[in-house]
């Protein structure tokens, strides 16, 4: 597994990263200065992503200085625009600098949100940092880099799903229900949840394509949790409930299946109910330890008290003493008998 440096994004970079979700930023250059990741330059969209690539990206690199470049595509996934993470590490840069940037990249991905990153590219010469170079990267990618333990597990899961016979409609019926495949963004969101990038994920079944999509991934406060639950559509949710119990700090992962009664179609109710078991199985295979499974019909139920009581149910420690049963009524007074002596 890769070693991380402990270097974090500074406040300015975090602000720009949050803007990337809904602004017209096209590209963001990130450098490491004073043991912090910082925003060095940024540009806004002018044309298509292909038109803007050569206009902006080559001008951002320096011959002897590594950097990261986050470049926004025009395509979107369920979370928003997709991005390219380009790592510029020229051969002429000091070895220490190259090692520093290589070992900090995982932190940048975590800060930015791996589910937003569609592709990664490593460049060492200027010719690679161009639209032509990027397209060459797409068409002639060499052998993949060594995988981390978690990436290896995720790859194994993906291969097992691929080899499973889902039938013509990519759906598998089992004794435990129906297994719809989950999207790459959904899988990456689950990985990011375990890394601490998020504490809340929401999943939606695409009834037309018969897939499970990631519809939300964020860090929220507990009081914001009820507001995430739609009142007219079913959803699956994963939430990390941070609390203390008997003096111990605990992070409990809760799976929530929300179904707002008859506001949903019969098909939607059937699909969410049938897919739940198999979806939970996939989540647990990916290493998520689910502390509690809940089913609700209204987000207002998700209070701190409710979650705490569900995870730590109250036990009756004072059992009533066993009461000795009373004898039958009207037994009368006890009789005293004397033994007769022989005369």
UniProtKB/TrEMBL annotation:
Top-level division of the source organism's lineage: Eukaryota
Gene3D superfamilies in alphabetical order: Severin
InterPro entries, per database record: ADF-H, ADF-H/Gelsolin-like_dom_sf, Twinfilin
GO biological process, any: actin filament depolymerization
Cellular component annotations (GO), alphabetically ordered: actin filament; cell cortex; myofibril
Ranges for domain ADF-H: 1-139, 177-312
Keywords associated with the record: Actin-binding, Cytoplasm, Cytoskeleton, Repeat
Pfam families tied to this protein: Cofilin_ADF
UniProt entry tagged with the keyword NAD: no
Subcellular location: Cytoplasm, Cell cortex; Cytoplasm, Cytoskeleton
Region named Disordered: 317-343
GO molecular function, one term: actin filament binding
Main localization (coarse): cytoplasm
PROSITE patterns named among the record's database cross-references: ADF_H
PANTHER family: TWINFILIN
Subunit structure: Interacts with G-actin; ADP-actin form.
Family: Belongs to the actin-binding proteins ADF family. Twinfilin subfamily.
Function, as annotated: Actin-binding protein involved in motile and morphological processes. Inhibits actin polymerization, likely by sequestering G-actin.
Protein name: Twinfilin
Organism listed in the record: Bombyx mandarina
Gene symbol of the encoding locus: LOC114247623
